[in-house]
Amino acid sequence: MKLTHFSITNYRSITTAHKISLHSTTILIGKNNEGKSNILKGLNTAMHVLDRRGLGPSNRNLRNSRYRNIDDRYYYWERDFPVSLRGRSSGTQTIFALDFELEPEEILSFQEVVGSKINGFLPMEIRIGRDNQPIIKIKNKRGAGATILNKKINKITSFIAGNIEFNYIPTIRTDSDTLDVVRTMLSRQLKQLEDNDDYLKAIDTIRILQEPLLRDLENQLMEPLKEFLPNLVEVKISIPETERRVALRNDFEVMTPAVNPVELNLGDFSYAA
Questions:
Q1: CB neighbours (10 Å) of residue 71?
Q2: 169 pLDDT exceeds 80?
Q3: Beta strand pairing status for 263-266 and 269-272?
Q4: Other Cβ atoms within 10 Å of 105 Cβ, number
């Protein structure tokens, strides 16, 4: 599966859509402050939206704001929508358009996973307005077929998230930027374990071991809380399954131990590490 075209409208310095064709190697050339970085940031934002929705809690709970809202590190309307256009009464959404092309075996897999046939081309559109809630739909398709596909949009985003990997490595200026990049890459690597039966059994074992501790804490809290809430009947503490899985994927520390500089002689060149 590959991304073949991409366009952005109303994002930072970009107010007019220009469709960019992507190939095995694509080079953006332009003067400083012409919008090259914003194009890449916009593409990263769009892929983040698809990945986040696709990795939601089995796409069962569409109202879960954790997966509907976008992480403000990627997009925040007050920061990312062009200032010059904010006085409009309409057209106040940032629009990302992405065209994906599927290999023959992926077309069959799509039909199996999503339950619909496509011709190998998957045009997606993402709109984000003032509420920072992305709206995802199939682009440039009309009729009953489009309606059916848009009702399956969470299965489609899940399919995309499982079949394409996107790594955005910006120009790194600080150690925190570096660690953010590494954390994102590690999180995606660890996510692969979530389809492993042994890993899922281990998570279930953790849940079983946690249960008596949670029940004990409920009992400890009941009496002191009743002093302030006389009508309190029950205290219930739970860890949602999705939160447990996400915590295991994201809760890690990146350490960079200090080492003595080592100089390597490579022919006529030298490299200090």
A1: 13
A2: no
A3: antiparallel
A4: 8
Closest by alpha carbon to 101, among 2, 212, 210, 244? 2
User: Which of left, alpha, beta for 99 (phi over 0: left; psi -120 to 50: alpha)?
Assistant: beta
Domains of the chain: 2-168 (3.40.50), 173-273 (no CATH)
CA-wise closest residue to 182 among 161, 168, 203: 168
Closest Cα partner for 162 from 114, 98, 96, 97?
Answer: 114
pTM over 0.90? The answer is no
| Cβ contact 6:28 at 8 Å | no
Measured distance CA(93)–CA(80) in Å, rounded: 10
> Cα 215 from chain centroid?
34
Query: Which pLDDT value is given to residue 258?
Result: 54
Give the CA diameter of the chain.
81
Tokens 């490579």 correspond to 266
Model pLDDT, residue 13:
92
pLDDT band for position 267 (50/70/90)?
Answer: very low
* Angle subtended at Cα 254 by Cα 253 and Cα 255, rounded to the nearest 5 degrees: 110
Residue 132 region by backbone torsions, left for phi larger than 0, else alpha for psi between -120 and 50, else beta: left
